[in-house]
Design goal:
It is a multi-pass membrane protein. About 75% of the residues lie in helices and about 0% in strands. With about 450 residues, the chain is mainly α. The relative contact order is 0.15.
């Protein structure tokens, strides 16, 4: 049997170093949320895209970024996270590189509607980086003891979530100076540099490193405990996903997150188009309003998490969806720029507060399958970012310029449904969960 001394020499990295690496990796990966939003107007002018086509285009990165969260997040329990993290970022490089090649060789004279499927394909690949969230949650969780996980994961998710807002500001500045293709080239360079930093800083937790060095499972667990690791992977990830799916409460939580976080992703991509089409806002005004929405909604999650601990997740969720409902009604009916800005602020605060509250409710309502439930909620809930923009585009195409505002009726409907589901969960909170007890990984849920 190997000694603990030899085990220490076999396991590299540290908790803080790996947290920094995962945060950098998630930050550059999550920036793909804004892959097309700030540049959509350029494609519209050159390729003569319809509102429906634009809606699908800006939503495409969300499709892969949402669906891949579930399998890649589960893969962490098998190898520690570094390999799936790198694969997702490399796929994103291929997607952004493909867009750069198209723009370099075709834009603007030869870029036509016939190239639209290629934009969708490269957008889907670029969006793979969004799925790094679930991988990083697992990788960070295994490094930190339980009493320090909340702070570590808040740092990880909080900084990473600011990426779309910053991209919405910086990317147009670069494009204004050097052109569209330069913007994507710089994006490509940043992602490649981020991958390099992740390779250097991101380490799997000691247990996974020791297993890779050939140590037996029980021996590696004991040695990793001696190195300070407290959390270890579940014996059956598939069982945790199946059992969480059999709890009816999982699916209202998915729907709630579909509205709040999926809706947030959708608006991050759609708002530049909305402000330009509805109020003839300048390019920079539209992007500034979009970036403000993204940053406000992301930052409000920190205090909203504390409010959920203090007042209860249901109360904060209900209040947040009320704000979302009021803001969506204002934006759907308003013809005033100032009133619509106020509506955007209410929507941002409502979505951010609801995002924090929903993940507070996950362990409360499905305590026997927290890891599996968090996977379903985070993965399927984020699909709202893919589903909603094409609907908004269809309404705009059907109704004309006024349809860009009327499209917020979609959020009115989602907010009302979310209020009803929140009330349903609250009134049934005392009844037992129907999930079977399973041994899930002891990850602390985090608000992505």
């Amino acid at each position: 049997m190997r000694s603990n001394t030899s085990s220490i020499s076999a396991a590299g990295g540290s908790a803080s170093r790996s947290l920094a690496g995962a945060t950098i990796g998630f930050f550059i990966g999550f920036g793909a949320v804004s892959l097309f939003g700030p540049t959509a107007q350029s494609f519209i002018k050159v390729m003569q895209l319809s509102p429906e086509q634009v809606g699908l285009l800006v939503a495409m990165p969300m499709l892969t970024g949402s669906l891949l969260r579930i399998p890649f997040g589960a893969w962490v329990d098998l190898n520690g996270g570094k390999m799936p993290f790198l694969l997702l970022l490399l796929a994103s490089v291929v997607g952004i590189g493909g867009l750069y090649w198209m723009l370099l060789s075709l834009y603007p004279e030869h870029l036509t509607a016939e190239h639209y499927p290629w934009l969708l394909l490269f957008g889907a690949l670029g969006g793979c980086g969004i799925a790094t969230f679930s991988v990083g949650v697992g990788q960070v969780s295994y490094w930190f003891p339980k009493e320090r996980q909340g702070k570590a994961l808040s740092f990880y998710a909080g900084l990473g979530n600011t990426s779309p807002g910053l991209v919405a500001i910086v990317l147009p500045l670069i494009i204004a100076v050097g052109g569209l293709w330069v913007g994507y080239f710089v994006s490509l360079v940043i992602v490649i540099a981020g991958i390099g930093l992740y390779v250097v800083l991101g380490f799997n937790a000691p247990y996974f490193q020791l297993r890779r060095h050939g140590m037996a499972q029980a021996e590696a667990r004991d040695a990793a405990k001696a190195l300070g690791q407290e959390l270890f992977p579940a014996p059956s990830v598939s069982r945790a996903l199946i059992d969480s799916a059999t709890s009816w409460r999982t699916w209202p939580l998915v729907a709630l997150y579909f509205t709040s976080f999926g809706g947030f992703l959708a608006l991050t991509a759609w708002l530049p188009i909305y402000w330009g089409a509805s109020y003839k806002a300048s390019h920079w005004e539209a992007l500034g309003l979009t970036a403000s929405f993204s940053l406000l909604s992301s930052l409000i999650r920190v205090p909203a998490g504390n409010w959920s601990d203090r007042f209860g997740g249901e109360r904060i969720a209900f209040a947040s969806y009320c704000l979302l409902l009021i803001g969506a009604v204002m934006m759907a009916l308003s013809r005033s720029f100032g009133l619509s800005v106020t509506g955007e602020v209410l929507v941002a605060v409502g979505m951010g507060g609801a995002n924090a509250a929903v993940f507070k409710l996950v362990p409360q309502y499905v305590p026997d399958a927290v890891g599996g439930t968090a996977g379903w909620v985070g993965g399927l809930g984020a699909l709202g970012g893919f589903v909603v923009p094409p609907i908004l585009g269809h309404i705009a195409q059907t109704m004309g310029a006024v349809g860009y505002g009327r499209g917020y009726v979609v959020y009115v409907i989602l907010a009302v449904a979310s209020l009803l589901l929140t009330y349903l969960l609250y009134v049934t909170r005392q009844s037992p969960s129907r999930t079977k007890p399973v041994r899930t990984s002891m990850r602390a849920p985090v608000k992505p």
